Amino acid sequence: xxxxxxxxxxxxxxxxxxxxxxxxxxxxxxxxxxxxxxxxxxxxxxxxxxxxxxxxxxxxxxxxxxxxxxxxxxxxxxxxxxxxxxxxxxxxxxxxxxxxxxxxxxxxxxxxxxxxxxxxxxxxxxxxxxxxxxxxxxxxxxxxxxxxxxxxxxxxxxxxxxxxxxxxxxxxxxxxxxxxxxxxxxxxxxxxxxxxxxxxxxxxxxxxxxxxxxxxxxxxxxxxxxxxxxxxxxxxxxxxxxxxxxxxxxxxxxxxxxxxxxxxxxxxxxxxxxxxxxxxxxxxxxxxxxxxxxxxxxxxxx
Length: 302
Fold this sequence. Notes:
The chain contains ten helices and eight strands.
């Protein structure tokens, strides 16, 4: 049953989408919303890919890694609040997502962890709070395993992706849906991401959908394949810093029992904090509580 639940979690979303045609938002495939111009900077990774990032505020650094298909904008409410509270907030777009370059390669977790390392090293960040959301949790796990935790003070993983792989046929079915009608596929998954009925406005739901549509189709496909087949379990032992896992018990994209609970069991000394009734999209649907908990953890351990 546990294996079946894990396969279902990957099939239902691979970080925010689903094959179930339950979406209510309509999007034109020929005229997706155009991203607004945002002030920001770029960092060049080891293979020459330029990553867009924001670096706001001063004080102890918090580095944010976003979910599959989204970008740094998903952290809007956390960045605004925490910057005002005296923290330095750094959030970047994964390669092929948002405003970062799409090199058509490097969507495996080793390369993505190297991209995170490039951000940390080139900004010379130390005593970091690393915050990973969904797919971003896997990037942080691999970063610590491959690059060490010398610069890391603490980790927060929210709505994390499964630590164990699922069937290749599951990821193949999601890839097929992305290739067939990507806008409809993403729109259909939105109720699972934000919950149903959702506590956020229709405008915020549309904003999230527009963000999904700004990711590279090729990056979305390659990341799907890697999420569905990666095995993080051998890397979890490398995490020795204080780790908080936050997840809703109504997460239908990455069910709690096969994601957050498994990570909490495997990461020594970690804490699992469960939000009653919360869906996958915690940083929006429960943004005030999540931001408060993030800040409290940073203060407590710091």
